[in-house]
């Protein structure tokens, strides 16, 4: 079914295709023929796939990365497609439109995307409101939080606190996003001093709650080994839960496009197949260098079951899909879970 739908979707503007897909997701269960998309695969619900990490019971280890359902609009429907968990966001305290359009591009030759969305979202209050009405309590939901574009880095911690408090009763875990390349100067917060201060503040706030939630840090694939060593030290020092490796890259290395073509696409984060190797390298480095000190969610360039297995073998405890899901469709979830079961 998705093969035919993809032919149509890939003929229109990527952002328009995204909005159309979400409209179809909400209507699909009531449309003849489309209901088949939501036929739950017994593979994805196999009890042998469930994983308990940090007190959270993930029904399978294949999740949806942040960025697709920014405003918590279709998390129930996406869960019905077979995901073990859904990460919404990135959300910010105030609604913001994001960067100017066009801001999302397909690189078909490399099965990749370039995006410079810029944390476009309806604001954390709206997302929290939708999540509090969720029906399926077995579907783990993560909340990916960021700062508004107009907030200077010196005051960024306040934005993260607002998002944390608003979402606390509505999500199962948090992700601190300081690694998007599409908000000016945001990646400066990955430096050791400001990042330690930010995470310490959130973790102290977390520990005042009756039931503290796991906090993950999402990092860029462009960090050096020295910076990754700093990340390990920061995780241990602040005692947050773990890491999501990795976000999109600003690199354009190895693409099958001319410099002029890439210049026309402009700035933004690259995701998809070109990221497969690097994200796996980061996972392996963190796992080995930290001596398996914290859980890792692996994301970046997972387009096949083999890609997923390589990340799990490198040390990822869970994995997330984004660009691979757009290119391959829901069958990818079942393919990965089948491969995991076959290895048991």
Describe the 3D structure.
The chain has helices at 2-9, 14-27, 75-80, 124-131, 156-167, 192-207, 225-238, 259-265, 276-289, 305-314, 323-328, 331-343; strands spanning 51-53, 56-58, 62-64, 85-91, 104-107, 112-115, 140-145, 173-177, 215-219, 242-245, 269-272, 296-299, 318-321. The chain has 344 residues and is of the alpha/beta class. The protein has a single domain, classed as Aldolase class I (TIM Barrel). An 8-stranded parallel β-barrel has the order 3-4-7-8-9-10-12-13, surrounded by 5 helices. Strands 5-6-11 form a 3-stranded antiparallel beta sheet, with no helix packed on it. Strands 1-2 form a two-stranded antiparallel ribbon. Helix 5 packs parallel to helix 6, helix 9 packs parallel to helix 10 and helix 10 packs across helix 12. The radius of gyration is 19 Å and the shape is globular. The mean pLDDT is 94.
Task: Compile the SSE list and pairings.
Elements: H1 2-9, H2 14-27, E1 51-53, E2 56-58, E3 62-64, H3 75-80, E4 85-91, E5 104-107, E6 112-115, H4 124-131, E7 140-145, H5 156-167, E8 173-177, H6 192-207, E9 215-219, H7 225-238, E10 242-245, H8 259-265, E11 269-272, H9 276-289, E12 296-299, H10 305-314, E13 318-321, H11 323-328, H12 331-343
Parallel strand pairs: 3-4, 3-13, 4-7, 7-8, 8-9, 9-10, 10-12, 12-13
Antiparallel strand pairs: 1-2, 5-6, 6-11
């Amino acid at each position: 079914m998705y093969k035919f739908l993809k032919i149509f979707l890939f003929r229109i503007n990527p952002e328009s295709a995204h909005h159309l897909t979400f409209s179809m997701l909400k209507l699909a269960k009531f449309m003849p023929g489309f209901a088949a998309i939501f036929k739950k695969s017994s593979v994805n619900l196999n009890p042998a796939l469930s994983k308990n990490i940090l007190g959270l019971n993930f029904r399978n280890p294949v999740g949806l990365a942040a960025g697709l359902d920014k405003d918590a609009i279709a998390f129930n429907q996406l869960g019905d497609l077979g995901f073990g968990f859904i990460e919404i966001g990135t959300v910010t305290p105030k609604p913001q439109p994001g960067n100017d359009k066009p801001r999302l591009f397909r690189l078909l030759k490399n099965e990749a995307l370039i995006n410079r969305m810029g944390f476009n979202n309806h604001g954390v209050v709206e997302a929290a409101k939708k999540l509090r009405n969720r029906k399926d309590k077995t579907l783990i939901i993560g909340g990916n939080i960021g700062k508004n574009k107009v907030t200077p880095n010196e005051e960024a911690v306040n934005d993260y606190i607002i998002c944390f408090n608003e979402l606390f009763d509505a999500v199962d875990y948090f992700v601190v996003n300081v690694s998007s390349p599409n908000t000016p100067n945001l990646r400066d917060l990955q430096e050791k001093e400001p990042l330690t201060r930010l995470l310490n503040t959130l973790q102290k706030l977390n520990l005042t709650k009756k039931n503290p939630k796991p906090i993950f840090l999402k990092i860029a694939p462009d960090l050096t080994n020295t910076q990754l060593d700093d990340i390990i030290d920061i995780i241990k020092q602040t005692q947050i839960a773990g890491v999501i490796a990795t976000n999109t890259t600003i690199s354009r290395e190895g693409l099958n496009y001319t410099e002029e073509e890439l210049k026309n696409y402009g700035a933004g984060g690259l995701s998809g197949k070109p990221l497969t190797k690097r994200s796996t390298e980061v996972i392996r480095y963190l796992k080995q260098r930290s001596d398996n000190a914290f859980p890792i969610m692996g994301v970046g360039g997972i387009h096949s079951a083999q890609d997923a297995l390589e990340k799990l073998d490198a040390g990822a405890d869970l994995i997330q899909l984004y660009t691979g899901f757009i290119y391959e469709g829901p069958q990818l979830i079942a393919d990965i879970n089948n491969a995991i079961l076959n290895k048991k």
